[in-house]
Design goal:
Layout: E1 11-15, H1 18-21, H2 62-76, E2 80-84, H3 87-90, H4 101-116, E3 120-126, H5 132-138, H6 145-161, E4 167-171, H7 181-185, H8 197-221, E5 226-233, E6 236-238, H9 243-265, H10 270-279, H11 287-293, E7 299-304, E8 308-310, H12 314-317, H13 344-358, E9 362-366, E10 376-378, E11 381-383, H14 387-405, E12 410-416, E13 436-438, E14 450-452, H15 454-464
């Protein structure tokens, strides 16, 4: 008999974000979000208005094809589907007092379809989709006003969907704010400049307070709900055995872990307060804020794509050869086509680190390989022979099983993105992640037809066997 370390109630599924799949950027009363003026991804300048070269304006037309897509997810055997609600569909400008009913009704229809197929929803409240009006009028999360706007938005969702949705995430990759202030926090970036540290740290505080308030509201309005935070994770290795490099790792680790520490412990840790002192930053923190932060999360979710190395050597650190998330290249690891170093064992390390540190159930809500797929014909059917993706996911899932055997409590795994999407980092469609190929290209051409890749059938077997089919 084949055994598996995955518990019987383990939730298998996939994940997407509204701005990367839905399209329909101006349908049914939706307002603009920051994504609608980001045609080239994270690092490129924003546009003044939506432009035809922004693939996210149509994306993969999931807004009009959600039933077809969810049926394909059900065919793979999904037990859970993580998706985000577009804030500007519910409150088009973000600061209205009444929601847009057409936007709320759309997500009712999505939930209807998921329930029809027996798939649990896992909903992200804010996934890099700050309404553009809040960015341009208030300065995004640098303004304390956004706490109240987010609070109204979250309450609206809990009141409307609280009886239908058990698992909620407050902010996607909340620790990305310091690295991508406009995408993550709607904070305008000066031309040729950067956002000052004091503004970024104050915005971070506002988001943490808003997240905690949403957690409190969920317990009042939807007592059966489970609210989690969501952080971008990556193990950080010292480039050498030097104590100085080990200390550089600790410093870099702290910069990421502070978000989870606050979400799970309800207060700022000493190492973060020291950082503020040394930077000469004094945050505006009220007594009410401190009380709000004590509303800690029920579980911790995270994305995992890569690990990084770190060093105190300024010459090596300045070489520019790190991953997208910084650091320096690890000479022991291979990399994807986009330079993301591939490290399955790192996922086991992160799971153990987070469990030992926070003692909260964990949920892996993003993990996947972006690659250039080629549509071919096999036995009369169009498909993609993506053995490279199967190998990547297999090796990472084996390490999840090892972490579970280590005693880590893992609720589930949602592969990113389970269907081809517009990449967040580069705004490309050619950087494909899905089990389902979508016929659309970087120039906007294509039929939008869906095709099952080889990995589609592989993942269906993994789910049906509860991980027993994985190659160890």
């Amino acid at each position: 008999m084949t055994t598996t370390p995955f518990p019987a109630d383990f939730l298998w599924g996939g994940a997407t974000a509204a701005n990367q799949v839905e399209g329909a950027f101006d349908q049914d009363g939706k307002g603009l979000s920051v994504q609608d003026v980001m045609p080239r991804g994270i690092s490129a300048p924003r546009s003044a208005t939506p432009t035809p070269d922004n693939l996210k304006l149509v994306a993969i037309d999931h807004y009009n094809r959600y039933a077809e897509d969810i049926a394909l997810f059900a065919e793979m055997g999904f037990g859970v589907y993580r998706f985000s609600i577009a804030w500007s569909r519910i409150f088009p400008k973000g600061d209205e007092t009444e929601p847009n009913e057409a936007g709320l009704a759309f997500y009712d229809r999505v939930l209807d379809e998921l329930e029809k197929h027996g798939i649990q929803p896992l909903v992200t409240i804010s996934h890099y989709e700050t309404p553009l009006h809040l960015a341009e009028t208030y300065g995004g999360w640098a303004s304390r006003d956004l706490i109240g706007f987010y609070e109204r938005y979250a309450r609206t969702l809990f009141e409307r969907y609280g009886s239908r949705v058990k698992y909620w995430l407050t902010f996607n990759e909340i620790n990305s704010l310091l690295h991508a202030p406009f995408m993550s926090g709607g904070i305008p970036i000066p031309d040729g400049g950067s956002v000052p540290d004091d503004v970024l740290y104050q915005a971070m505080h506002h988001e943490l307070v808003a997240s905690a308030r949403a957690t409190r509201i969920a317990r009042e309005v939807a007592p059966g709900a489970q609210v989690g935070c969501m952080v971008l994770s990556m193990p950080i290795y010292p480039l050498s055995p030097s104590p100085a490099d080990a200390l550089a790792v600790l410093t870099a680790d702290h910069a990421n872990l502070v978000y989870g520490d606050v979400h799970t412990r309800g207060e700022y840790p000493g190492y973060f307060l020291r950082t503020l002192r040394e930077k000469g930053i004094e945050l505006d923190i009220t007594d009410e804020d401190r009380d709000d932060l004590t509303n800690t999360v029920d579980f911790v979710s995270f994305s995992y794509y890569m690990s990084v190395a770190e060093t105190a050597d300024a010459e090596k650190k300045g070489s520019g050869e790190g991953n997208i998330m910084g650091g320096v290249q690890n000479p022991t690891l291979e990399a994807s086509e986009w330079g993301w170093q591939i490290d399955p064992v790192g996922l086991r390390l992160v799971l153990n680190q987070f469990w030992d540190r926070w003692r909260k159930p964990l949920f892996i809500v993003e993990n996947g390989l972006g690659a250039r797929d080629q549509l071919v014909e096999v036995d009369g059917r169009k498909t993609v022979v993506d053995d490279y993706r199967i190998a990547y996911l297999n090796d990472h899932l084996v390490q999840v099983g090892e972490a579970i055997a280590d005693g880590v409590r893992v609720l589930g795994y949602t592969s990113w993105g389970c269907i081809d999407i517009v990449s967040a980092s580069t705004a490309q469609l050619s950087k494909r992640y899905g089990f389902i190929y979508v016929d659309r290209n970087d120039d906007g051409s294509g039929s939008l037809d869906r095709y099952r890749k080889k990995s589609f059938h592989w993942y269906a077997e993994v789910i049906s066997s509860n991980g027993a089919s994985l190659t160890r």
